[in-house]
Design brief:
InterPro entries: Helicase_C-like, P-loop_NTPase, PRP5/DDX46/KHDC4_KH
Catalytic activity: ATP + H2O = ADP + phosphate + H(+)
Distance between the termini: 34 Å
Number of domains: 2
CATH superfamily of the largest domain: P-loop containing nucleotide triphosphate hydrolases
Order of helices and strands: EHEHEHEEHEHHHHEEEHHEHEHE
Number of helices: 12
Organism: Candida albicans (strain WO-1) (Yeast)
GO molecular function: RNA helicase activity
CATH architecture of the largest domain: 3-Layer(aba) Sandwich
Structural class: alpha/beta
Helix content: 40-55%
Protein name: Helicase C-terminal domain-containing protein
Radius of gyration: 24 Å
């Protein structure tokens, strides 16, 4: 696989800050807009709340700005990008989370500011790649603190791969981090291992266990005890099928743009009970999962009542005509895996609550 590197048309500057990032942002915006009044500026934050707070702060200080992130609906995001891309809108500053800015290709985008440092090298390459396109000169500025040694290490690595100059202070922080890694005091996360893969294996193990329970190869102890005390009840135990959680490497057909996500998963929620669907797709729930996993999660397709389904296989595969589903997209396998784990947890919690409210059999099983 070809390793991604930072484009040479982009120059990178760094500010090692402990506090007063907002004040520094004001200074940079003011000076840059004086020299480049028509240039577009992208500011990247880690969390959705931070993006909204930055927009409010900039607007109150007479800097026209707009935000996009996974917590906003698709129409709002499209409108924001259209306004930002327009040379006549008067809005030259876009605040965005990393995943929301993927594929963004706006003419005259001359400056990218990483208000929060990216947490892995691929994300840094993706962020900086928003500027310096088509041979044009671009600039990238990253705010980072000495209390973020792992982020500094990843960024120094990216700069070395792009043959860029490295600030001695950054290299010193990165070298200290490497020393701690060798001593076993710190760990380097590649973005493709660690907790995410552990969670994925847990999902697989649970799936196998539940399949065995369904087909009679294994019976939980609680079910055995309850069966002995309720032999007179011959009613079948209700089975609620969970959707598939298959992660696919590659670009999603639903997503367009030059920088599509590296991994995705379609989770069909159409056939889940209505209250469960609602608990999963409500904005507050999805926003929390998006923030924690650093993924993009959107609701796609349309709802089909019980007994109805798309008329053909083509419709089943078509994003707009398929059964209602969640599209989870991420730059790394770990991020998509974490999102799936959180969604599945929310799904099971909602099903448990539904079972209690409707007085279903306590031995009801979830069939994966």
């Amino acid at each position: 696989m070809k390793r991604a590197v930072v484009v040479f048309e982009t120059s990178a500057l760094w500010w090692i800050l402990q506090t007063q990032r907002v004040e520094k942002l004001h200074d940079i915006l003011s000076n840059y807009q004086i020299e480049h009044p028509d240039s577009k500026i992208l500011v990247l934050s880690e969390k959705q709340n931070d993006a909204d707070e930055l927009v409010a702060n900039l607007l109150s200080n007479k800097y026209p700005a707009i935000a996009i992130h996974g917590g906003k609906d698709q129409m709002d995001r499209k409108y924001a990008i259209k306004e930002f891309a327009s040379m006549d809108s008067g809005i030259n500053i876009l605040i965005a989370t990393s995943i929301a800015a993927r594929g963004l290709d706006v003419r005259n985008l001359g400056l990218v500011i990483n208000f929060d440092p990216p947490n892995h090298m691929e994300d840094y390459v993706h962020r900086v790649g928003r500027t310096g396109r088509a041979g044009a000169k671009g600039n990238a500025i990253t705010f980072v603190s000495s209390s973020q040694p792992k982020e500094v290490f990843n960024l120094v690595k990216a700069l070395k791969l792009s043959h860029s100059d490295i600030d001695p202070k950054l290299e010193e922080i990165a070298n200290k981090f490497v020393t701690k890694v060798k001593a076993g005091k710190e760990k380097i996360s590649s973005g493709f291992g660690g907790k995410g893969l552990d969670n994925l294996q847990e999902v697989r193990d649970n799936k196998l266990k539940l399949e065995k329970q369904r087909f009679g190869d294994q019976q939980p102890q609680r079910q055995q005890e309850e069966t002995e005390t309720k032999k007179s009840n011959d009613e079948p135990v209700p089975d609620i099928a969970l959707p598939e959680f298959n992660i696919i490497e590659g670009n999603t057909p639903e997503t367009s743009g030059p920088d599509k996500c590296k991994f995705y998963c379609r989770i069909v929620i159409n056939d889940l009970p209505q209250k469960v669907r609602w608990n999963i797709v409500q904005r507050e729930s999805l926003s929390k999962i998006i923030d924690e996993s650093r993924t993009s999660i959107t609701t796609r397709g349309q709802y089909y009542p019980p007994g109805l389904k798309p008329l053909s296989n083509d419709q089943e595969r078509n994003g707009s005509l398929a059964k209602l589903y969640l599209l989870v997209e991420g730059l790394t396998l770990q991020s998509v895996t974490e999102a799936i784990t959180l969604i599945k947890k929310k799904m099971l919690e909602s099903l448990d609550i539904l079972n209690q409210r409707e007085n279903l059999q306590p031995t009801g099983r979830y069939v994966v």
